Amino acid sequence: MARLKPLSGFPEFLPSGQMVENHVTRILEETFELHGFAPIHTRAVEPMEQLTRKGEIDKEVYVVDRLHADPRESRSEKDRLGLHFDLTVPFARYVLENAGHLHFPFRRYQIQRVWRGERPQEGRYREFTQADIDVVGDQTLAEHHDVETPLVMLSALERLHTELGFPTVTMHVNNRKLSEGFYRGLGIEDPMAVLQRVDKYDKIGPDAVRELLTDELGLSDEVAGKCVALASIQSADDSFISRVRELGVSNDLLEEGLDSLNRVVTAVNKIVPGRMVANLKIARGLDYYTGTVYETELSGHESMGSVCSGGRYESLASDGKHVYPGVGISLGLTRLLAPIISRGELTSSRAVPSAVLVAVNTEEDRASSEAVAHLLRSRGIPCEVAPKADKFGKQIKHADRRGIPFVWFPGAQHSDHRDHDTVKDIRSGDQVEADAASWNPPAEDLYPGVVGSW
């Protein structure tokens, strides 16, 4: 039989790594729910017409077809299905289908797998987990949610920093109205085409962006130069406003974007100083964004690019009568975790959830061990029963190999009495009498912890 080869771009973790991801997921869920966000889960597939209608992503979508489809059931192009490449498009559809059952503004979080057909590399995967939060309104959505949403995500990331030693972050923010107004003030008729090229600024540099603007879009050197100059502006205070105005471009939409961006940066930095920076090259390639846009970098790991991004959208979800504007941010959970888990820099303190292995005296007496395990589990103590009634030394070695800290020895059963149960900490060798109805392991041993650091 040929040796199995891993499928590139589809990361899988060993149990110790998966428990790290589960731990991080619990922190995110707790933080999001603390701020009143409700969980949802959407289907994996959407019509291709919906997936490809916003932005140039059609080459990245995995199309879903039945292997033995009946030719008489062949779908038209608009009815073909594809795996969702993010959670925003399916969320928009979810809002439209369930609007009558939702209370607005609707606050949701969603932690789920997504798929993209791009070239796999470290930090870039074909299947990965995203964690999204969004606030959606009916017809209108107040601007203060542009401040609230990044603060919630920053709060989650701060917990990861405090509890697990993750790096601190800087969230970079821009406003699409600012960029579009600036381009229109320069006489550019297709601002989106410029945004899509400016979005490559960090990957290819300012000179290459200028070249794209002149060669592909036919902009003059002067106009392209001002577009690149705008993209180079960055500040943690309101000084970006004067620097934009020094470029000599006037437009009402530009002024609206400047004011909005200034309010967001000022409000966020008042609560979490230094965590947000106005960065006017942030564009976001998908064209459903209409206002504030966010990207987030890990301090000391800027080469990874953005691990958390999003923005405001005014009309992603609309049924013709109602428009549901929203603002959201997505955290690339696999992008964040897979590299450090695969390098062993972050792992679980043990490879199994069990805190206790209940030993088996004899196979005939296995029911006694199962009864102890049942009682421990009823009190929230993870445990398992030894697979075989080996010599106790072998059962202890089995627990040690699995990282289980305690071994429980049921008292021997006799016709006229029952010996006391004992529990042994196999790390220290300490062994004491114990009652399954009242004994508890130390709090730090109850569940596996995350060990290691960046």
**Percent range for helical residues?**
25-40%
The spatial strand order of the largest sheet comes to 1-5-6-12-11-10-7-9-8
Low-confidence stretches: none
Instruction: Please identify the structural class as seen in this structure.
Output: alpha+beta
Number of helices in the DSSP assignment:
15
Strand segment count: 19
User: Ends: how far apart?
Assistant: 39 Å
Computed over alpha carbons, the radius of gyration is: 28 Å
Silhouette:
elongated
Largest sheet: 9 strands, mixed
Mean pLDDT over the residues? 91
Describe the protein's architecture and organization.
The protein is an alpha+beta fold. The protein contains 15 helices and 19 strands. The strands form 4 sheets. The chain has a 9-stranded mixed beta sheet with strand order 1-5-6-12-11-10-7-9-8. The protein has a 5-stranded mixed beta sheet with strand order 15-14-16-17-18, with helices on both faces. The protein has a 3-stranded antiparallel beta sheet with strand order 2-4-3. A hairpin with a 4-residue loop joins strand 11 and strand 12. The longest helix has 20 residues. The protein is elongated and about 90 Å long.
